[in-house]
Design brief:
Strand content: 35-45%
CATH architecture: Beta Barrel
Structural class: mainly beta
Largest sheet: 6 strands, antiparallel, barrel
CATH superfamily: predicted glycosyltransferase like domains
Strand order of the largest sheet: 1-2-3-6-5-4
Number of domains: 1
Number of helices: 1
């Protein structure tokens, strides 16, 4: 795991963001899991997922705050406790912007007050 951390393309932020994950289990059963992220990055996220998934498969991730959808690839699966797996997802199309809205926050417009004497 340490080697993976050294290869990170973007910083992980430890944020809990509500998401829905849609996909199919390895035995082809459809699922929808409502969960939260453990960490996010510009390239994906880490979360606990109840349905079984396997590395390399594609799932649909929905940001519950914004209702934005992003197709993702499962890049890491580790069994955890309480029947959930620790799953890392990587965005399929990284050109669609900041899915989490934490790397490029909406800019704050500062209005300049003009002196009445001008």
């Amino acid at each position: 795991m340490e080697n993976l951390q050294n290869q990170r393309r973007s910083k992980r932020l430890p944020l809990s963001i509500p998401v829905q994950v849609y996909g199919r289990t390895p035995d082809n059963r459809p699922f929808r899991d409502v969960t939260t992220t453990n960490a996010v990055s510009a390239h994906g996220g880490l979360l606990a997922l109840a349905p079984r998934v396997k590395r390399g498969q594609t799932v649909l991730l929905v940001n519950t705050f914004t209702q934005e959808e992003r197709e993702c690839r499962v890049v890491y699966v580790k069994p955890q406790f309480k029947g959930k797996n620790k799953v890392a997802l990587e965005f399929g199309d990284k050109t669609k912007g900041d899915f989490w809205h934490v790397y490029n926050p909406i800019p704050v417009v500062v209005h300049r007050l003009h002196d009445a004497a001008d």
